[in-house]
Design a protein that fits this description.
Number of strands: 0
Helix content: 55-70%
Low-confidence stretches: none
Number of helices: 8
Distance between the termini: 60 Å
Structural class: mainly alpha
């Protein structure tokens, strides 16, 4: 037994739930500003889990000790394609929720896509829906071209 072993905390290994919450924390922190919309989204995600506070505590500790590259190296083998896409959809929602996709957020999102070998082409339809969900200008500007009676919304193919 080492001299300082008593001070080591036994942190559980990362699992898919930790990865989900941690990924959101990385995105929320990417631009250096934590917006109310981002906190609301994080709270919504956490509300789905009975161990919400433990997930948040673990994820914050992990975030403080590890950069996104180490996170992606550890999280990637734990996640199914469905889990990766769910995380990416939530990350895209987070980065567009305040109406401004900061360059640091965009770079981090690209890092996730690359690490998980998901092309922009594959993700584009999901992103279009999320961007539309978070864009309120069609309500704020009646002259927006998308409010023209002939305009139809559709997903790219």
């Amino acid at each position: 037994m080492g001299l300082f072993d008593a001070f080591k905390s036994s942190t559980p290994a990362m699992n898919s739930q930790h990865a989900y919450v941690s990924a959101l924390i990385y995105m929320i922190a990417a631009d250096g500003v934590i917006e109310d919309e981002e906190i609301v989204q994080l709270r919504g995600v956490l509300a789905q889990f009975p161990n919400a506070q433990d997930l948040l505590d673990w994820s914050i500790k992990y975030f403080k000790k590890n950069g996104p590259d180490q996170f992606l190296n550890q999280a990637s083998p734990l996640l199914s394609d469905a889990q990766r896409m769910t995380i990416l959809i939530n990350l895209a929602d987070s980065l567009t929720s305040d109406g401004d996709a900061d360059p640091n957020e965009q770079a981090l999102f690209q890092k996730f896509l690359s690490a998980w070998n998901i092309s922009e082409e594959r993700f584009r339809p999901f992103f279009e829906v999320i961007a539309m969900k978070n864009d309120r200008t069609v309500f704020l500007n009646q002259n927006d071209r998308r409010n023209d009676p002939s305009h139809r919304v559709s997903l790219s193919k």
